[in-house]
C-alpha cells in the first residue's frame, strides 16, 4: 500500500518510505462536510488532505470520506492510489464528545484500513 493519510494538524515525516496525508482537522461541526475536504498537496502517490470531523450521524464515515478523497484528487488531476492506507492524525480527544468516540471505536474495530493516533486494538 502506498497511500497514507495524516491530519494537517501535525504532519511529520515519521520515517515512512511512502507517505501521504489526509487532514481531518477538528471542527465545531460534528458531521463530515464535503465542502471542507480539500487536497492540500501531492507528491507521487503521497497525498495530503484536510477536512473536518469525518462522522455522519455519530458514526465514522469511512466510505464517504474515502469517496470524497478520491473525488478531490480527481478534481485536481491527481491519481488516487488503487491500494492505500488511511492514516488519521487528530488533535481531538474524548472530551470532544460522541463523534470522536465513534471515530476511535471505528479504528479499533478496523485496524486493517489504516493507522490512527490511538494505536491498534
Helix content: 10-25%
Using the alpha-carbon principal axes, give the shape.
globular
Rounded to an integer, what's the Rg over CA atoms?
13 Å
Strand content: 15-25%
Total DSSP helices? 2
- Tell me about the biggest sheet? 3 strands, mixed
Give the beta-strand count.
Answer: 7
Q: Enumerate the strands of the largest sheet in spatial order, edge to edge or round the barrel.
A: 1-3-2
End-to-end Cα distance, whole Å, is: 21 Å
Q: Mean of residue pLDDT? A: 75
**pLDDT under 50 segments (min length 5)?**
1-29
What string gives the helices and strands in order? EEEEEHEHE
Describe the structure.
This protein is an alpha/beta fold. It has a domain at 1-44 and 53-87. Helix content is 21%, strand content 17%. It is built from two helices and seven strands; from the N terminus they run βββββαβαβ. The strands form three sheets. The chain has a three-stranded mixed beta sheet, with helices on one face. Helix 2 links the parallel strand 6 (86-87) and strand 7 (114-115). It is globular. The two termini are 21 Å apart. The relative contact order is 0.23. Mean pLDDT is 75; it is low at 1-29.
Amino acid at each position: 500500500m502506498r497511500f497514507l493519510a495524516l491530519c494537517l494538524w501535525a504532519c511529520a515525516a515519521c520515517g515512512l518510505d511512502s507517505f501521504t496525508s489526509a487532514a481531518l482537522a477538528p471542527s465545531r461541526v460534528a458531521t463530515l462536510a464535503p465542502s471542507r475536504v480539500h487536497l492540500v498537496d501531492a507528491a507521487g502517490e503521497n497525498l495530503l488532505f484536510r477536512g473536518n470531523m469525518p462522522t455522519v450521524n455519530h458514526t465514522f464515515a469511512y466510505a464517504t470520506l474515502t469517496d470524497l478523497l478520491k473525488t478531490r484528487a480527481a478534481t485536481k488531476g491527481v491519481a488516487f492510489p488503487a491500494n492505500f492506507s488511511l492514516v488519521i492524525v487528530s488533535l481531538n480527544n474524548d472530551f470532544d464528545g460522541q463523534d470522536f468516540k465513534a471515530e476511535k471505536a471505528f479504528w479499533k474495530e478496523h485496524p486493517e484500513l489504516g493507522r490512527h493516533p490511538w494505536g491498534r486494538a
